[in-house]
């Protein structure tokens, strides 16, 4: 039942509206403990996407570079990954390992994420699982190196994607979100969760 595009397994509408609402409620507790922040790029310009994490590791970025850290920039450990989210990993990841990071990306209107690769993890044989919530996001998929043709698809609230195999090291990004396309988040915007094995 998933659609395959360049090795990405796309499960449109995998999560019911009730499941989506449960995850949002759980994320409110995560964000209360580990507030969203705007990561600083090594070039000194803040990213437009705000982020936080749950799990043993979280992704941080500052003038010393990008890395996984066992603490939030405020100095505290990250909250646990909620069960409502772990369940999705168990259902679709196809790996015995547990996720060590749930990166939470929040896109307000106008936020975007440029084309990049995810290479900060130790084992690229481990998949990444992505969960989309809220407004639609235009996802772009490139190649293993910069440049070349790209393909785009809209990610909608409740969609799940699994990046394994050949898809794991492809360049990818979010060009824009479409404001007002979902009522899940009262103030609008888009949340993307990525579950990762880091070590
Ligand atoms: C392909 N997030 O957090 S999710 C990211 O919607 C990231 O916030 C985007 O790219 C977002 O790094 C896209 C889809 C995704 C996530 C991780 C990947 C695609 C991926 C890792 C490897 C390859
Ligand atoms: Fe990425």
Give the helices and strands, then pairings.
Blueprint: E1 3-5, E2 8-11, H1 17-33, E3 50-54, E4 58-62, E5 65-69, H2 83-92, E6 101-107, E7 113-116, E8 128-134, E9 136-141, E10 151-155, E11 160-163, E12 172-178, E13 190-196
Antiparallel strand pairs: 1-2, 2-11, 3-6, 4-5, 6-13, 7-12, 8-11, 8-13, 9-10, 9-12
The chain binds N-(carboxycarbonyl)-S-(naphthalen-2-ylmethyl)-L-cysteine and fe (iii) ion (FE).
Fe (iii) ion (FE) is lined by residues 116, 118, 172.
Describe this structure in words.
By secondary structure, this protein is mainly β. It has one domain: Alpha-ketoglutarate-dependent dioxygenase AlkB-like (Jelly Rolls, Sandwich), CATH 2.60.120. The protein contains two helices and 13 strands, in the order ββαβββαββββββββ. A hairpin with a 2-residue loop joins strand 4 and strand 5. The two termini are 31 Å apart. The model has no long low-confidence stretch (mean pLDDT 96). Residues 103, 105, 113, 118, 128, 130, 137, 139, 161, 163, 167-168, 170, 172, 174, 192, 194 line the site of N-(carboxycarbonyl)-S-(naphthalen-2-ylmethyl)-L-cysteine.
């Amino acid at each position: 039942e998933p659609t395959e595009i360049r090795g990405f397994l796309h499960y449109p509408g995998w999560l019911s509206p009730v499941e989506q609402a449960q995850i949002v409620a759980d994320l409110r507790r995560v964000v209360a403990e580990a507030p969203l922040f705007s990561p600083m790029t090594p070039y000194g310009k803040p990213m437009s996407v705000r982020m936080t994490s749950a799990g043993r590791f979280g992704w941080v970025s500052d003038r010393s570079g990008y890395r996984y850290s066992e603490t939030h920039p405020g100095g505290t450990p990250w909250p646990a990954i909620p069960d409502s989210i772990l369940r999705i990993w168990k259902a679709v990841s196809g790996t015995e390992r547990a996720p060590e990071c749930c990166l939470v990306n929040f896109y307000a209107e106008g936020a975007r994420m440029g084309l990049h690769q995810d290479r900060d993890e130790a084992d690229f044989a481990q998949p990444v699982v992505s969960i989309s919530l809220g407004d639609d996001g235009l996802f772009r998929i490139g190649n293993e190196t910069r440049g070349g043709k790209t393909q785009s698809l809209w990610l909608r609230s409740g969609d799940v994607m699994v990046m394994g195999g050949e898809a794991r090291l492809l360049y990818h990004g979010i060009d824009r979100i479409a404001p007002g396309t979902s009522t899940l988040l009262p103030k609008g915007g888009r949340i993307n969760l990525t579950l990762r094995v880091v070590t």
